[in-house]
Design brief:
- The protein has helices at residues 6-27, 32-61, 63-73, 76-87, 91-120, 132-150, 163-188, 202-234, 238-251, 256-263, 267-292, 306-323, 330-348; strands at residues 125-127, 327-329.
- With 349 residues, the chain is an all-alpha fold.
- The chain has one domain (6-348).
- The chain is globular, with a radius of gyration of 20 Å.
- The chain starts with 5 loop residues before the first helix and ends with a helix.
């Protein structure tokens, strides 16, 4: 702890305090809204701790290990929330949480990164490697292919098609593709670059990672437990809860580093963080949850409502349009943020 900055020590203590408050709120049966808000705050903080401890482990074991851990551990809080939601038969929350995570990262986060980066750049145009968004768009297109063929609501598949069977096969295929992508982008290319010398010993880093993972499991259960009464009290829709609240709580703090990197002028790395997050959700988190749901009371498939299919399809197109040429300006960042706001308002209605 001595090598940590005052801000890092304060942040870890704040997350620990948020966890204790969430535990007390759950155990003492506080009113639904405070329970829900405290659990959401603790969840966001634990997402940051997982990311921080993963970086610390990587400083000891090398960049490829850091990249692999980020790819597998980074979405743990969100995965657990969705698993508990499916266990509580909250299918709408689970589906919209996945869609919302994709939209929050590919539109809101990318838009903020571009806004900050363009303000930092000469001429007001943020420039980065052209190849960075391509892998992400490819994985998104594979996911969309599975969604379109699994969704009976579009009427494209034969009437005899079983969405669950198609989803299981598609999930397995996506995970194979994701494994190949990880093998190339993480191990062949050296993975995520280290950010400096380790500030914690390896044993301490692993212990912090383990504690954050276990704590995420408890907080996810408390979050889902308070979800239904809280949204009833706040007069929110389940779609809004999943699309906005769960998505932002599970991703915002963890990926704030991409905004900081953009402000520092490290544009390639900032875009890479966003790209990796979107790719992990599309090709790892979603298909993994489809397979995990086979063991749960409520099955998750790739079959979505047309409005979400359209949003994901248009999201993929605009991400390619904005980031595919290797440069972006402030108005493009604002355009991405505006699209996210429109979808969030639609979910709230």
């Amino acid at each position: 702890m001595a090598n940590l900055s005052p801000l890092q020590r304060a942040s870890l203590l704040a997350v620990a305090a948020a966890f204790v408050l969430a535990a007390v709120a759950h155990g003492e049966r506080f009113a639904p809204v405070p329970q829900f808000l405290l659990a959401a705050l603790a969840l966001a903080g634990l997402a940051w701790v997982l990311s921080f401890s993963t970086d610390e482990v990587g400083e000891h074991l090398g960049a490829p290990v850091t990249g692999f851990l980020h790819a597998t551990v980074g979405n743990l809080p969100e995965l657990l929330v969705i698993v508990f939601a499916l266990g509580a038969n909250e299918l709408i929350v689970a589906e919209t949480a996945i869609v919302g995570s994709l939209l929050a990262n590919a539109l809101l986060l990318l838009g903020i990164v571009i806004l900050v980066g363009s303000a930092r750049s000469k001429g007001g145009r943020m420039r980065f490697a052209k190849g960075l968004p391509r892998d992400t768009v490819t994985l998104l297109l594979v996911m969309l292919f599975a969604i379109v063929l699994s969704s009976r609501s579009l009427g494209l598949a034969p009437r005899t098609t079983q969405p669950r069977t198609v989803s299981i096969v598609a999930a397995a295929c996506l995970l194979v593709v994701y494994g190949a992508w990880i093998a190339r982008s993480v191990f062949d290319r050296g993975g995520v670059a280290s950010t400096g010398l380790a500030r914690l010993p390896l044993a301490g880093s692993l212990l912090l990672l383990l504690l954050a993972g276990v704590a995420s499991g408890f907080v996810s259960a408390w979050f889902v437990d308070a979800l239904r009464p809280a949204i009833l009290r706040l007069h929110l829709s389940k779609a809004f809860a999943g699309l906005v609240i769960v998505a932002i709580a599970g991703n915002a703090v963890e990926h704030a580093s991409s905004v900081v990197l953009s402000a520092q002028g490290k544009f390639d790395l900032a875009i890479s963080v966003v790209k990796s997050s979107v790719a992990q959700i599309a090709a790892f988190l979603y298909p993994a949850l489809v397979l995990i749901s086979l063991l749960l009371p409520t099955a998750l498939t790739f079959s979505l409502q047309p409005v979400y299919i359209g949003a994901l399809g248009l999201m993929t197109l605009i991400v390619w349009q904005v980031a595919g040429d290797g440069e972006a300006s402030a108005f493009e960042g604002l355009a991405l943020i505006s699209i996210y706001v429109i979808v969030a308002v639609l979910a709230a209605l």
